[in-house]
Amino acid sequence: MAVAKKDVGIELPALNIGIMEVTLIGDSPLIVHAWSAKAKKEMLDKQMKKAKPAKEAKDPKADFEASMYRLSDGGYGFPSVAFKNAAVTAGTSVAGLTKIQARQAFHILGEDADIAGAFDGSKSRVNLVRIEGGDPAMREDMVRVGMGTADLRYRPEFSSWRAKILVRYNENVLSEAQILNLLNVAGFAVGVGEWRPEKDGQYGMFHVATERDLAKLELAA
């Protein structure tokens, strides 16, 4: 005789989502290097088997401008996911927290911006954190590309910078204090941008603003 099956409901614990605003203060210059439209176009042309045109003369000013992330109002930005990745990587320094747990426990929210793609009419949307603290300076660096060929790169460097981020997190997994600790460790040990500590550099370091930092910012406003 067949036994009737009973439907067993699955009960999932309710998400307890919190959101907080955090100000990050740069401790070392931030070097930005966005993919330029020119570099993406060269990559696409190669993949589409197009004939390679003669190499254009280097334009340091154009390279500098093309390396920036711009917000819709013309302000400066930096990918919000870079700050999340830094915090997730820093999670390996926090006892009892794996990268997977950290990655799933919180998100960093910024402002959406559209960037023109290499193919005519295409675009990509990137979420950016606003970078404040003044205009960047043009930085010149000698780099090695390809088979050890030397090249000069011109990129923006924010010598004094700060960023205000929104963190949306699952309070069932991480507390506010734990997230602040993750961000602090990330700013010291991982960093963001080019030549950050994670890549054997010392740029793009930051810390979570203290009450004294915030008071200074209010006085300067």
Descriptive overview:
The protein is α+β, with helices and mostly antiparallel strands. The protein has a domain at 19-32 and 69-136 and 159-220: Alpha-Beta Plaits (2-Layer Sandwich), CATH 3.30.70. 27% of the residues lie in helices and 31% in strands. Strands 1, 3, 4, 5, 6, 7, 10 and 11 form an eight-stranded antiparallel sheet that branches. A three-stranded antiparallel sheet has the order 2-9-8, covered by helices on one side.
The CATH topology of the domain at 19-32 and 69-136 and 159-220 is: Alpha-Beta Plaits
Low-confidence segments, ≥5 residues, pLDDT <50?
A: none
> Roughly how many Å apart are the termini?
80 Å
Helical residue percent band: 25-40%
Structural class: alpha+beta
Oligomeric status? single chain
Overall 3D shape: globular
Strand content: 25-35%
* CATH architecture designation of the domain at 19-32 and 69-136 and 159-220: 2-Layer Sandwich
**SSE order, as H and E?**
EEHHEEHHEEEEEEHEH
Rounded mean pLDDT is 88
Helix/strand layout:
Blueprint: E1 17-26, E2 30-31, H1 37-47, H2 60-66, E3 69-70, E4 76-79, H3 80-90, H4 99-105, E5 106-109, E6 111-116, E7 123-132, E8 137-145, E9 149-158, E10 162-170, H5 176-189, E11 206-208, H6 211-220
Antiparallel strand pairs: 1-10, 1-11, 2-9, 3-4, 4-7, 5-10, 6-7, 7-10, 8-9
Helix pairs in contact: 3-4, 3-5
Can I get a quick summary?
The chain has 6 helices and 11 strands. It is of the alpha+beta class.
